[in-house]
Amino acid sequence: MKIQNQLARVVVIGTSAGGLKALMELTKQLGDDFPAPVLVVQHISADASGDVLLDALRKTSGLKCSRALNGAPMLAGHLYLAPSDHHLMVGDTDTLLVTKGAQENRWRPAIDPLFRSAAVTFGNRAIGIILTGYLDDGTAGLVAISRCGGSSIVQDPDDADYPDMPKNALNQVKADYCVPIAEMGDILKTLVNDNREKIPIPVDLLIESKIAKRVLSDLPAVKALGKQVPFNCPGCGGILWKIGSGKATRYRCHTGHAYTAKVLLAEQTMKIEETMWVALRMFEERKNLLTTMAADQHGATLRTSEERIENSQVHIDRIKSILLTDDKGTKSDMPV
């Protein structure tokens, strides 16, 4: 059952909030005779084990479910779950690649690296599925699969517990199918036997895939993808390059961090708030120290300290006012 021929397919699935329920419902429609491997990225925190999801899938899915191991062969009828704090990608046409590469869209594992690697390795034989979740990780990856001639399936937003990810994908990809999860099993069984036209893999996708796999990480490679912009990477402080335009705008640094415009805005918002809280603490500590010192002062020295205490209070009030404003994004801007 090992992949070793040009007719083989790979199915890649990306999900976030609400993913456990969605994955259980989808994979129970497939059995161990399914003629392709299924690779899954579910957003989970770095300190989570993923055991709850894996145990649930083993109980309900007909596929043989396991945690992905670096270098392990991909087998048809098997489901491979990305380990926490690691990216899962297609290494070549028959092996898994599990790495500690840079976060993409604030996540590791992230959906885009998996989808992109499947697109450049399998081309028209890749099948990508976007399920429930916040924000738009996976959209760029699904675009990559479509550009390489592969098949795209998006959960009907009305069927999703958290419709952001499906909606964002549909805004940029003319999906082959937008259906409820209950209909995906039969569609997959048809697609694995579908013969699509083979088309060349775009050069920019090859470059991005190599960056994510840490095969390539230099300035000329990123410069070839887009235009340098006056923003810094929230992950490492490096320079960012803008890739694409309009709804498809993304940003990437040469070390591998990548962001959609929405995620970059959410990350900047979070960093600003963190910085403001640190500034508030420092000004309050300064005021408290000045107040303590003033207790033993007299005359002109005391008046100077009192002025500095008043100035500190002005800064404290201003920072509190900023922190109390409502420009901190919506729930869908925040991590899950």
UniProtKB/TrEMBL annotation:
<feature type="active site">
    <location>
        <position position="43"/>
    </location>
</feature>
<dbReference type="GO" id="GO:0008984">
    <property type="term" value="F:protein-glutamate methylesterase activity"/>
</dbReference>
<dbReference type="GO" id="GO:0000156">
    <property type="term" value="F:phosphorelay response regulator activity"/>
</dbReference>
<dbReference type="InterPro" id="IPR000673">
    <property type="entry name" value="Sig_transdc_resp-reg_Me-estase"/>
</dbReference>
<dbReference type="Pfam" id="PF01339">
    <property type="entry name" value="CheB_methylest"/>
</dbReference>
<dbReference type="InterPro" id="IPR011247">
    <property type="entry name" value="Chemotax_prot-Glu_Me-esterase"/>
</dbReference>
<dbReference type="GO" id="GO:0005737">
    <property type="term" value="C:cytoplasm"/>
</dbReference>
<keyword id="KW-0145">Chemotaxis</keyword>
<feature type="domain" description="CheB-type methylesterase">
    <location>
        <begin position="9"/>
        <end position="195"/>
    </location>
</feature>
<feature type="active site">
    <location>
        <position position="16"/>
    </location>
</feature>
<keyword id="KW-0378">Hydrolase</keyword>
<protein>
    <recommendedName>
        <fullName>protein-glutamate methylesterase</fullName>
        <ecNumber>3.1.1.61</ecNumber>
    </recommendedName>
</protein>
<dbReference type="GO" id="GO:0006935">
    <property type="term" value="P:chemotaxis"/>
</dbReference>
<dbReference type="InterPro" id="IPR035909">
    <property type="entry name" value="CheB_C"/>
</dbReference>
<feature type="active site">
    <location>
        <position position="137"/>
    </location>
</feature>
